[in-house]
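User: Sequence in, structure out. Go.
Assistant: Echoing your sequence, followed by the structure tokens.
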Amino acid sequence: MKPEQTRPPQEQQRQPGLESAMDPRPQSIADFQRPLRLRDKTAVVTGGDSGIGRAVALAFAREGANVAIAYLDEDDDAQETVRLVEAEGRRCWPYRADLGDEQTCVDVAAKMRSGLRRIDILVNNAGEQHPKGDLRDVTRAQVERTFATNVFAMISLTRELLPAIPKGGSIINTASVTAFRGSPGLLDYAATKGAIVSFTRSLALNLVDQGIRVNAVAPGPIWTPLIPSTFDAESVATFGADVPMARPGEPAEVAPSYVFLASDDACYMTGQVLHVNGGEPI
């Protein structure tokens, strides 16, 4: 099948070539630049009570977006996120829900569609992990729970919120460095993150004709509440020391990648993964 023409036929007899002779001329200045990249957008961020989710919610608010956060049961942390977002002059709506439960996920999505009307940005960030160094200790129940939170909830929430996402919308999924290099102690967690990468790439192709972009961020060792709630004190003490930068990253150092993918700055990106991991080659 012959590809459709995208530019008038032309050639130049010298390299590197003359931009002045091109038809049309390349756009060097974006026509969508503005002071606030997410002005008056509405975003949903799961796991928005703390860690990466809170940092993303706050970064979105600073770029002009109103934010709804979904969280499990960390009410105090969630209210702190609300306070921080509102301090930026934006609105923040907390939704308490176990997204790993299908019916709960469907119900909270219905409330979001009804209350928010339009959702310009969806960040699927909620997750859990349970270290086990021996595969024989990884039970079926644990695998099902990890996949329910990390993968099934992501697919279900996206499905339920999709009618509220307009053309030009952005979906951003939180993957992990473990999807690319593996993790001997987080077998089922790494498997979920690999699934998220594949889901991201597939959904990007599925929605491209609707004008909705789908990308992912794959953080490395980031200092969030998930770390001390997962690992023992000795492991926490050296957390992140094994990456080239020899330290864990902060949630605020990851959040700008989500802002970029949510904004028109990333208008020619879909199905991609950004790696924020302290220098680990991927």
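User: And one key feature?
Assistant: The mean pLDDT is 94.
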